[in-house]
Write a structure and sequence with these properties.
The chain has about 170 residues and is mainly α. It has helices at about 1-25, 30-40, 55-70, 75-105, 110-125, 130-160, 160-165. Helix 4 runs antiparallel to helix 5.
Length: about 170
C-alpha cells in the first residue's frame, strides 16, 4: 500500500513538474503530459502502480478537464461553438441512426425496435455516470425486448380473423 502511494506521489510530482515546464514553454498541459509519459517510458524506473478505471476517472481526469476549462479562451470557444454544437447534436443522431441500421440489418430487428434501441443507447451513453449508463443500457435492452414482443403480439392479433380471436 505504501509503495503504491509513493509511486502515486512520484507520478503527481512528475505531473506538477510538467505543469511548470509547459507553462513556461507556452504548451498545452495535455501535450506536456503525453511527452512526459513517453519520456518516463524510456527511463529505467519501472512503476508497478495498478491504474484502475476508477483511479483514472476520479483522480487524474477531473484536474485535466478543470484545467482545460479554466484555460480555454472564450473567443476561441465561441468561434468553435457551431462545430461543437453540430457534433454534439448531429453526431449523436447519426450514431444512433447507424446503431439502429445495424440492429435492423445485422440482427433482423424491426425498424421501431432498432430505432428505439439506438436512441436509448446513445441517451444512456451520454449520461455522465458510467454505472448509470450501464444500468440504463440494460434497462433499454429489456424495454426494447418487451416493446418488440408487444409489437409482434399486436401484429399477430391484427392478422387473425375476428372469429379466431373470440374462440380463446
Amino acid at each position: 500500500m505504501t509503495a503504491d502511494l509513493s509511486q502515486l506521489g512520484i507520478l503527481l510530482f512528475s505531473a506538477s513538474l510538467v505543469a511548470i515546464v509547459t507553462r513556461r514553454l507556452h504548451l498545452p498541459y495535455t501535450v506536456g503530459l503525453v511527452l512526459a509519459g513517453i519520456g518516463l517510458h524510456f527511463l529505467p524506473l519501472r512503476l508497478s502502480l495498478h491504474l484502475s478505471k476508477d483511479l483514472i476517472f476520479s483522480v487524474f481526469l477531473p484536474p485535466l478537464v478543470f484545467e482545460a476549462a479554466l484555460c480555454i479562451q472564450w473567443s476561441e470557444f465561441k468561434k468553435d461553438l457551431p462545430l461543437v454544437g453540430l457534433l454534439a447534436s448531429a453526431g449523436v443522431v447519426l450514431a444512433a441512426a447507424v446503431t439502429a441500421a445495424g440492429m435492423h440489418y445485422l440482427l433482423d430487428w424491426e425498424w421501431q425496435a432498432a430505432i428505439l434501441f439506438g436512441v436509448l443507447c446513445f441517451w444512456a451513453i451520454a449520461q455522465h455516470d458510467t454505472i448509470m449508463a450501464v444500468i440504463a443500457i440494460i434497462l433499454c435492452m429489456v424495454n426494447v425486448f418487451f416493446a418488440y414482443r408487444w409489437l409482434q403480439m399486436s401484429r399477430l392479433a391484427k392478422s387473425q380473423p375476428a372469429g379466431a380471436r373470440n374462440k380463446r
